[in-house]
Design goal:
Elements (H helix, E strand, L loop, with lengths): L4 H25 L5 H18 L2 H8 L6 H20 L2 H6 L1 H26 L5 H7 L3 H22 L3 H33 L4
Helix pairs in contact: 1-2, 1-6, 2-4, 2-6, 3-4, 4-8, 6-7, 6-8, 8-9
Length: 200
């Protein structure tokens, strides 16, 4: 029913804002906390929060949102593989690596801002200039941190796994990070240029 589109998207984005904020706050409050403690306290929460984002593929495919289906699928699929096939499947490797905490920091900052932006937009209120700028500027730093951390954790899992089929699959995914990251980064740069044009 078309009349349910706005309240549904508003609810979805509001929930995700708070879910990612729940991940970000402990990282900001305890910057010197060990990666192992971060993993123990935040891994399940992050895994299920990210899994919820699979709905965004359906949103895009059904036309509920205007997000490009291929770009949306690429990002959600890559993160889903990360949280389930790497972080969850290789707890020892993940929990001991500073890359895990760096990855969560990049993800949670980016997504707290992104979902907050959509909440304001869908609500019909003018988007504050600062929020708009953060939404379309912080990725310049956060994307390299997040993607680099993801790649490193997958690389370590590739070395650790004893199953050659799994190892081969991970090597394939590692190879996709090059063109995939360029595609995502270029897409966001274009979005930034289009959205912030004339707003400086």
């Amino acid at each position: 029913m078309p009349s349910l589109k706005t309240p549904y998207l508003l609810t979805y984005n509001t929930i995700n804002t708070f879910l990612w904020l729940r991940i970000l706050v402990p990282i900001l409050l305890s910057p010197l906390q060990s990666p192992q403690t971060t993993y123990t306290t935040l891994e399940p929460w992050t895994r299920w929060t990210q899994t919820l984002a699979i709905l965004e593929i359906l949103h895009s495919a059904s036309g509920l949102t205007r997000s490009p289906i291929f770009t949306t699928f690429t990002q959600i699929f890559a993160r889903s593989v990360q949280v389930w096939a790497i972080n969850y499947a290789f707890p020892t490797i993940t929990s001991l690596s500073p890359a895990y905490k760096a990855m969560l920091f990049a993800w949670s900052v980016a997504d707290t801002i992104r979902y907050s932006y959509f909440v304001v937009l869908i609500s019909g209120f003018p988007v504050p200039g600062a929020l708009r700028w953060l939404r379309y500027s912080l990725f310049l730093i956060l994307y390299p941190i997040g993607i680099g951390s993801e790649w490193w954790l997958m690389f370590k899992a590739t070395i650790a796994t004893e199953y050659w089929a799994v190892k081969a699959l991970y090597v394939f995914f590692l190879g996709l990070y090059g063109p995939g990251s360029v595609m995502m980064y270029s897409y966001m740069v274009r979005q930034r240029r289009k959205t912030l044009a004339g707003r400086a």
